[in-house]
C-alpha cells in the first residue's frame, strides 16, 4: 500500500470486513516487496503494510482540537484514521554497510519519535548484504544509544544490489512475525490505556459516565479487539456499546428538554447501524442465526418511528420541507440497513449456517429485500413532498438538527439527493430480488404480494404494460381469496392501464368486473355502466378513450367473480318421449346497479332448445328459435335475480345437456355492436356440493301397461315389511286380470319366459287412481325359516303353489295398488317376479306383462348375551342347580342408515326339558305346556324398552338374573326375545299420527352351558368393619350335598393388617347332607380400608380347591377410642 486512502463520509466501508493491524515500512522501498507482495488466506491474521519514503509526512501526529468530540459518539474520520492512517508499528529500514554511520540512524530515529504518535512503537531494521556481513560492535553500540530492545532492532540479510536487492524467505518471515506481534501488542496496550467507562464524563456524585462517552469507549475497545481477532472481547464491547447507545437514544428523544442530550439523533443512528451489524455478524459466527434475526429486528423496531428528534419536530415547517427531508434521510437509512442485512444472509459466509432447514419468515433474504423496498417506497413519497416544498428560510437546502439534510444523508451512507425516479428504480430492483428468493422457496402468498407492490410501482412511473402484467398475475388469486378491497384497487388500475394502452378487450373486462357491489359504490358503477352503454350505442357516448364497438366482444364471467350467475333446473328432470319439461333459468346478479340485457342467448346440444330471448313475456318460452319482442325488458335488479322459463318438448330419446363452455350469454347491445357476458350454467344444489351440468333425460315412451314396486328402503331381517305393487294402465285398459307373484333369493330366481316382456319402472309423478279401494294388510303369521315369505292384502300366502290375485277392472290411465307384506330371515338379496295376465276388453285376447324387481335385505339387530360369572364359577367351569346367575344382553343396531329401530321389549324365555323339541325354538319357548323350564327368572323376566330408539351402531343393554332348575349338559337354557319395529321416516318430525307397524321379534338362544348338582354349599359370614384392637369374627359354613363322605381341609393365614387368634388349620369329614361351621378370630392392627386374609378350602378327597384364593374382601378399621382414666 503506497499511501493512505481518502476518508469516506459514512462508516459503511468498514462494516463488512475486519481491520488488519497497520504497519508502516519507511525507507529502502525496494526491500518492502518481500512483505507487501505476500498472499494471505481470508481468515488469516496478517498486517496491512504501507510503504513510505524516508521523507514522508504521512506519519506526522496532529492532536485533536479541544471540544472536537463534545457532542458526537465517534469522530467521522476515526475509523479511517485507525484503519488506514494511524500506524501501530513504524519500521525504519536502513542500509547497514561498513561505512554507515550510526549517528545518521540515531538522528532519523529521534526525528520520527518526535513526529509520530506518542504510543506508536518504532522498530529499526538494518539491511546488510550477505557478502559483506561481518561482526562488529556498532550494532551493540546503536542499540544502547537508541535505547532499543532486542525486538526493536533487527538485522536483515539481503542479496543483490540496488533495485535488484531482495530479502531471503527466512528473514522476511522473521521480520513479518515480529512486526505482527508488536502490532497486536500495540492494540492490546491501546485498549488498556483507554479510560475506564465509569470515569468518562461522570456527573458529580455519580460513578456512571455520559452514555455517548461510554459508548465511544466500548466502540474503540471493540474495534481494537477486532484488530487482534479477539472475537469474544469484541462481542462483549459491541454489546456494551449498543446498550449505551440505547441509553443515549432515550436522552436524545426525551420529551423533557432539560434532560435532552445535545448529541444529534443522526449521530446515534450512524453509530447504531454499524454496531448492530457487527453484533449480528458475531452472532451468526457463533451458529445462532435465530438470535441474529431477533437482534436485527429489535434494532429496526426501536429506530423505525424515530424520523425527527423532538427539538426538530417543534420547529415551524409551513411547507413540510423539514419533515419531508427528514423522511428522505430516515427511510433511506432504514432501506440501507434492510438491504445490508439481506446481503449478509445470502453471503457465502453465512448462507451455509441456514442450510435447507426451516428458517421461518425472518430467515428468508426475500423478507428483508421486501422490507427494504417498502422503506425505499416511503423514501420516494417523501422525496416527492420535498421536491414540491421550498425550504422555510428561502435558502438552497433544508436543515435537519442544524445541518443541511444532504450532509446528514452522506454521514448515514445514503444518496444525498431527492431523486424520485431513482427511488422507484430502487424499489423495483429490491422487489425483484425478493421475488427471486420467495420463488425459490415457493412462498405463493409472498410472491403475489411482491408482484402487487411491483405492479403499483410500475403503475406509478407510467410503465402501464409492465403494471398490467403484474396486476393480472395477482388479480385471479385475490379474487379467489375474496380480498375485495385490494381487488377493487387492482381492477381500477387495470382499467386505467387498458385505457392508456388502448386495450379495448381489457378495458371492457375491467369495467364489467367493477360493477360488482363488493368493488364499487353505486355512483362509480353508474359512470362505468354509462361508458359501456356508449360503447354499444345504447346511450349517448360518455367521455371515453374508445369509440363505439365495431365487433362483438365476448367475456367469460367466472363463478369466483361473484358477479353474475345462471342456475338452471328441469322440471321434471326425467320425462318420457312425447311429454314436455320446463327449463327454469335464474340469472343471479351481484351488481351494484340494475342491468337491462338486450337479449339472453341459450346454447344447447339440442339445436331445438338453443334460442335467443328478447323479453320476459310467455312468447319467450315458445319453441321457436327467437322470441318475439314487445314484452317486459330483461331487467336484473341489483343484488336480485331474473327468472326465465322455457317449455320444451324433445323430439327424440337421450340426454339433453346444456353445454359447459358457452351456456348462457347475456348481450348488451345488438350485433355487431354488442358485449356478450358468457355465464357458467349450474344446477340448483347446495352451496357445499360440487356443481354439475344440468341435463334432461328423455326416456322411451311408456308401455301400454306397466308394473312398479315400492318399498321403504332395504327390507330388514325378520321384519314384516309393508310393500306395494303398482299396476299402471297408461294407454291401455284392464278389464280382467290375474296377478302372480314369486319371491325367491336373487341367485335362485329363474329368468322370465321368452313370451314375457321385461320392464324397468319409471315414476311418472301423475295422479294415481284405483278402481277399488285397497284393503289394509293383515298381520301375517311369521315363522322362523330360511326362505322369504310374501303375504297378500288379506294375509294370504303368495308365491309358488298359491293362487294368483284376482284384480278388478282398472280404467285407462289409472293405477292399482296392491298392499303386500314381505318377511325375510337372512340378509341376502331377493328378487320379486310379478306377472300380470289381463284382457283389455270383453272377448279380447289375453295379454301378459312380466317385471322383475330386486330387493335388498339387510340385518336389523345383532343380539348377544353373556353370563356374568363369579371367580368361583369360572374356576369351576360349570353352573350349579339353584345357583344365582346374572345375564347381560346387548341389542346392537346394524341396520344401514338412515334406518332407525324402536325397541319394545326384551324378554328372557326359559327353554323346556323336552327331548324331542329343539331347545331355543321360539314356538316351544312360548309354550307353557312343553315341559319343565330349565331356568327360573329372579325378578322381572321382561324389560319394557318403549321409547328407546336405536340408530346405526346404537346399542341397548339389559341385565337379567335367574337360577338353573335342573341339570343339563351343553344346552342352551333359554332364549332372548327382542321385539322391535322400524321407525317411519319423518314420523317424529311431523308430529302427526302414523299407523302402528307390526312389531317384529328376534329370537336369540343363550350360550350353551353345563348345569350340575352342587357338591358343596358354602356360605361365608364376613365382617365389613371393625375397630383397632378389637376382635373380628369370620364364619364359614360348609354343607355336603354329595351322596358320599368327603374329607375337607380349611386353612387360614395372617397378613400385615391382622393377627390371628386360635386355630389356623381344620381337617374334618362331612357325611352326605351334613354341615360344619368354622369360626376364626382376627385382631386388626392397621386402620383404614384393609384386606382380609384369604381362606382356603380344599376337598382332599378329590384334591380340588372349593374357594377362589384370588377373591379380595376389604374391611374398614376405625381407630381405637382413647381410654379415659
Automatic annotation (TrEMBL):
Coiled coil: none annotated. It is found in: Golgi apparatus, cis-Golgi network. Residues 751-763 have a biased composition (Polar residues). Keywords: ER-Golgi transport, Golgi apparatus, Transport. This is Trafficking protein particle complex subunit 11. One of its GO terms (cellular component) is Golgi apparatus. Residues 747-781, 988-1007 are annotated as: Disordered. Belongs to the TRAPPC11 family. The keyword Zinc does not apply. Involved in endoplasmic reticulum to Golgi apparatus trafficking at a very early stage. Residues 266-516 form the Trafficking protein particle complex subunit domain. It comes from the Eukaryota. Its main location: Golgi. Residues 1050-1095 form the Trafficking protein particle complex subunit 11 C-terminal domain. One of its GO terms (biological process) is vesicle-mediated transport.
Amino acid at each position: 500500500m503506497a499511501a493512505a486512502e481518502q476518508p469516506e463520509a459514512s462508516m459503511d466501508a468498514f462494516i463488512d470486513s475486519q481491520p488488519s493491524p497497520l504497519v508502516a515500512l519507511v525507507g529502502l522501498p525496494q526491500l518492502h516487496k518481500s512483505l507487501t507482495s505476500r498472499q494471505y488466506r481470508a481468515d488469516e491474521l496478517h498486517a496491512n503494510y504501507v510503504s513510505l519514503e524516508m521523507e514522508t509526512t504521512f506519519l506526522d501526529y496532529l492532536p485533536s482540537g479541544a471540544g472536537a468530540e463534545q457532542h458526537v459518539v465517534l469522530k467521522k474520520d476515526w475509523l479511517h484514521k485507525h484503519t488506514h492512517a494511524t500506524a501501530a508499528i513504524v519500521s525504519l529500514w536502513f542500509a547497514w554497510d561498513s561505512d554507515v554511520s550510526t549517528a545518521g540512524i540515531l538522528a532519523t530515529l529521534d526525528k520520527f519519535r518526535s513526529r509520530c504518535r506518542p504510543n506508536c512503537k518504532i522498530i529499526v531494521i538494518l539491511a546488510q548484504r550477505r557478502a559483506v556481513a561481518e561482526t562488529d560492535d556498532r550494532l551493540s553500540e546503536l542499540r544502547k544509544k537508541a535505547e532499543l530492545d532486542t525486538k526493536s532492532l533487527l538485522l536483515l540479510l539481503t542479496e543483490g544490489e540496488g533495485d535488484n536487492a531482495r530479502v531471503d524467505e527466512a528473514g522476511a518471515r522473521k521480520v513479518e512475525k515480529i512486526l505482527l506481534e508488536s502490532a497486536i501488542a500495540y492494540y492490546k496496550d491501546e485498549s488498556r490505556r483507554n479510560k475506564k467507562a465509569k470515569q468518562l464524563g461522570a456527573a458529580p456524585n455519580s460513578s456512571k459516565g455520559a452514555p455517548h462517552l461510554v459508548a465511544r469507549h466500548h466502540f474503540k475497545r471493540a474495534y481494537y479487539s477486532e484488530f487482534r481477532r479477539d472475537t469474544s472481547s469484541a462481542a462483549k464491547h459491541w454489546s456494551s456499546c449498543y446498550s449505551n447507545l440505547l441509553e443515549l437514544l432515550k436522552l436524545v428523544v426525551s420529551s423533557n428538554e432539560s434532560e435532552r442530550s445535545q448529541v444529534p439523533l443522526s449521530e446515534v443512528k450512524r453509530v447504531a447501524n454499524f454496531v448492530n451489524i457487527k453484533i449480528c455478524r458475531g452472532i451468526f459466527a457463533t451458529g445462532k442465526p435465530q438470535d441474529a434475526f431477533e437482534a436485527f429486528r429489535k434494532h429496526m423496531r426501536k429506530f423505525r418511528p424515530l424520523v425527527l428528534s423532538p427539538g426538530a419536530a417543534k420547529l415551524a415547517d409551513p411547507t413540510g420541507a423539514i419533515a419531508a427531508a427528514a423522511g428522505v434521510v430516515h427511510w433511506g437509512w432504514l432501506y440501507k440497513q434492510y438491504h445490508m442485512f439481506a446481503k449478509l444472509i445470502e453471503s457465502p459466509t453465512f448462507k451455509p449456517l441456514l442450510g435447507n432447514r426451516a428458517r421461518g419468515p425472518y430467515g428468508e433474504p426475500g423478507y428483508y429485500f421486501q422490507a427494504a423496498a417498502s422503506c425505499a417506497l416511503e423514501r420516494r413519497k417523501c422525496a416527492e413532498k420535498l421536491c414540491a416544498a421550498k425550504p422555510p428560510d428561502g435558502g438552497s437546502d433544508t436543515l435537519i438538527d442544524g445541518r443541511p439534510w444532504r450532509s446528514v444523508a452522506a454521514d448515514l451512507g445514503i444518496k444525498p439527493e431527492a431523486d424520485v425516479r431513482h427511488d422507484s428504480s430502487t424499489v423495483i430492483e429490491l422487489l425483484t430480488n425478493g421475488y427471486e428468493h420467495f420463488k425459490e422457496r415457493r412462498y405463493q402468498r409472498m410472491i403475489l404480494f411482491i408482484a402487487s407492490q411491483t405492479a403499483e410501482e410500475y403503475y406509478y412511473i407510467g410503465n402501464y404494460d409492465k403494471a398490467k402484467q403484474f396486476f393480472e398475475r395477482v388479480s385471479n388469486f385475490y379474487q379467489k381469496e375474496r380480498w375485495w378491497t385490494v381487488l377493487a384497487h387492482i381492477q381500477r388500475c387495470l382499467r386505467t392501464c387498458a385505457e392508456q394502452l388502448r386495450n379495448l378487450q381489457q378495458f371492457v373486462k375491467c369495467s364489467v368486473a367493477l360493477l360488482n357491489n363488493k368493488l364499487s359504490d353505486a355512483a362509480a358503477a353508474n359512470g362505468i355502466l354509462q361508458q359501456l352503454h356508449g360503447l354499444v350505442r345504447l346511450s349517448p357516448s360518455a367521455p371515453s378513450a374508445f369509440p363505439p364497438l365495431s365487433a362483438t366482444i365476448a367475456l367469460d364471467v367466472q363463478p369466483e367473480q361473484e358477479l353474475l350467475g345462471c342456475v338452471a333446473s328441469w322440471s321434471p328432470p326425467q320425462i318420457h318421449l312425447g311429454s314436455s319439461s320446463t327449463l327454469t333459468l335464474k340469472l343471479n346478479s351481484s351488481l351494484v346497479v340494475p342491468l337491462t340485457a338486450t337479449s339472453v342467448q341459450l346454447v344447447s346440444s339440442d339445436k331445438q332448445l338453443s334460442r335467443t330471448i328478447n323479453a320476459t313475456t310467455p312468447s319467450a318460452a315458445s319453441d321457436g328459435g327467437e322470441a318475439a319482442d314487445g314484452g317486459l325488458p330483461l331487467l336484473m335488479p341489483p343484488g336480485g335475480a331474473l327468472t326465465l322459463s322455457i317449455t320444451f318438448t324433445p323430439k327424440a330419446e337421450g340426454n339433453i345437456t346444456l353445454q359447459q363452455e358457452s351456456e348462457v350469454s347475456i348481450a348488451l347491445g345488438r350485433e355487431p355492436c354488442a358485449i356478450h357476458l358468457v355465464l357458467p350454467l349450474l344446477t340448483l344444489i347446495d352451496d357445499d356440493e360440487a356443481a354439475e351440468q344440468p341435463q334432461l333425460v328423455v326416456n322411451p315412451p311408456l308401455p301400454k301397461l306397466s308394473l312398479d314396486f315400492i318399498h321403504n328402503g332395504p327390507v330388514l331381517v325378520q321384519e314384516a315389511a309393508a310393500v306395494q305393487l303398482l299396476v299402471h294402465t297408461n294407454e291401455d285398459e284392464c278389464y280382467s286380470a290375474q296377478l302372480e307373484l314369486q319371491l325367491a333369493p336373487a341367485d335362485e330366481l329363474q329368468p322370465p319366459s321368452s313370451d314375457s316382456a321385461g320392464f324397468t319402472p319409471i315414476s311418472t309423478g301423475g295422479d294415481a287412481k284405483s278402481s277399488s279401494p285397497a284393503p289394509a294388510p293383515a298381520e301375517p303369521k311369521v315363522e322362523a325359516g330360511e326362505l322369504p315369505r310374501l303375504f297378500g292384502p288379506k294375509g294370504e300366502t303368495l308365491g309358488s303353489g298359491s293362487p294368483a290375485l284376482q284384480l278388478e277392472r282398472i280404467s285407462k290411465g289409472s293405477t292399482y295398488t296392491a298392499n303386500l307384506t314381505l318377511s325375510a330371515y337372512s340378509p341376502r338379496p331377493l328378487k320379486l317376479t310379478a306377472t300380470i295376465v289381463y284382457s283389455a276388453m270383453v272377448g279380447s285376447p289375453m295379454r301378459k306383462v312380466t317385471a322383475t324387481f330386486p330387493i335388498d335385505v339387510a340385518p336389523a339387530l345383532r343380539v348377544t348375551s353373556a353370563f356374568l360369572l363369579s371367580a368361583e364359577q369360572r374356576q369351576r367351569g360349570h353352573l350349579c342347580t339353584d345357583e344365582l346367575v346374572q345375564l347381560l344382553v346387548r341389542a346392537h343396531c346394524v341396520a344401514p342408515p338412515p334406518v332407525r329401530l324402536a325397541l319394545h321389549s326384551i324378554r328372557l324365555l326359559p327353554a323346556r326339558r323336552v327331548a324331542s323339541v329343539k331347545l331355543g325354538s321360539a314356538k316351544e319357548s312360548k309354550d307353557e305346556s312343553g315341559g319343565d323350564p330349565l331356568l327360573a327368572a329372579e325378578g322381572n323376566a321382561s324389560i319394557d324398552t318403549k321409547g328407546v330408539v336405536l340408530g346405526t351402531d346404537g346399542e341397548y343393554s339389559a341385565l337379567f338374573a335367574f337360577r338353573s332348575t335342573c341339570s343339563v349338559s351343553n344346552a342352551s337354557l333359554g332364549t332372548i326375545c327382542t321385539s322391535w319395529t322400524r321407525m317411519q321416516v319423518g314420523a317424529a318430525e311431523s308430529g302427526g299420527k302414523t299407523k302402528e307397524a307390526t312389531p317384529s321379534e328376534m329370537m336369540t338362544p343363550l350360550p350353551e352351558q353345563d348345569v350340575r348338582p352342587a357338591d358343596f354349599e358354602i356360605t361365608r359370614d364376613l365382617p365389613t368393619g371393625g375397630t383397632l384392637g378389637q376382635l373380628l369374627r369370620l364364619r364359614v359354613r360348609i354343607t355336603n350335598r354329595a351322596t358320599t363322605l368327603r374329607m375337607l381341609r380349611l386353612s387360614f393365614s395372617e397378613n400385615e393388617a391382622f393377627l390371628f387368634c386360635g386355630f389356623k388349620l381344620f381337617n374334618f369329614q362331612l357325611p352326605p347332607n351334613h354341615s360344619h361351621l368354622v369360626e376364626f378370630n382376627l385382631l386388626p392392627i392397621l386402620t383404614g380400608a384393609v384386606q382380609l386374609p384369604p381362606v382356603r378350602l380344599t376337598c382332599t378327597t378329590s384334591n380340588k380347591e372349593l374357594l377362589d384364593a384370588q377373591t379380595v374382601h376389604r374391611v374398614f378399621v376405625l381407630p381405637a377410642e382413647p381410654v379415659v382414666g
